Amino acid sequence: MGALAVQDLLAPPRLAAGQALEAEPVAAGEEELAAAERVTYRIRQRLRYTYDGPARGLTHRLVVLPPNRHGDQVSRYGELVISAPDATVAWERGPDGQRTATITLDEVPGLLDFDVTAVVDRGPAAGWPALPASALTGRRLLAPTPLTTPDESLTAVARRLAGPDPLTTARRCCAWVFENIAYRPGSTTVGTTAAQAAAGGAGVCQDQAHVMIALCRAAGLPARYVLGHLLGDGASHAWAEVVLPDGWAPPPPGPPARGQAGRGWAAPGGAGAVAVALDPCHNQLADRRYVTIAAGRDYQDVMPTSGWYCGSGRGALTTTQRVEVVELAGLPPRRLAS
């Protein structure tokens, strides 16, 4: 059976991925990841749909390949292989840089695989994603969406957490979610709102990100939803990015850049604002174990897989994925114990 292999036509000319596609994974702890000047990751993911009856006229949307650049993360290689050779693919870029593939297929086979391979680097330049100063006041990341609209209870919490220091406010919102929204798989659905998750006191990483975004926006901080991966096996992860004025951001993960050590990190080029990633599921800044796939206003903007078709067949989805470190560059020499 043939397959269709496609690359994102919106991507810049690819850098040579070298041996990263076939390299053996590198064992890397948090200290090695933080100390390396550059870390190279390989992402492999399979989304498999099986249909128990006739299906046709498929239109499917995938958000699975990383953006060209996201702060210090740079895409080196990205490929989507579709097991149906008759599929057609169109690419679009969203307002936050996400890369969306829309697949159409007249006749849907009983087994349909989407295989994703990507290679990305983190470091040594940039740091947090830089945004224009208008992102601090624009309605797009400040206005609530259906999934992030706060109720009276969440609005009252946001008032208590808000303060003059935007970074402190963001950290308070992150900590409140960690302390009040228990991670409980199966307790919510993809349509659960932030207010519903907060009222139930439980959810998954998607819900925790939505609650944090709702709190931040209610406190006057622009925020966006991030879809991504953590190192290792497992499902996709979600966290939040809070837009802070340039100079308020904490130092980004990795070795400090020249002139950027200490608090008050500023984006190169004086962008005006930076998007600082916080993970309310673990109550921490997102470090180098995190790989970003897409950012948007909420889950609906960056839903990794979605679509529709005609026919009596019912589709079932199974996914597998793995994120590995395949290269660590610029590690300082180890100090031997005396």
TrEMBL record:
Gene3D superfamilies: 3.10.620.30. Residues 197-255 form the Transglutaminase-like domain. InterPro entries: Bac_transglu_N, Papain-like_cys_pep_sf, Transglutaminase-like. Pfam families: Bact_transglu_N, Transglut_core. PANTHER family: BLR5614 PROTEIN-RELATED (PTHR33490), SLL1049 PROTEIN (PTHR33490:SF6). This is Transglutaminase family protein.
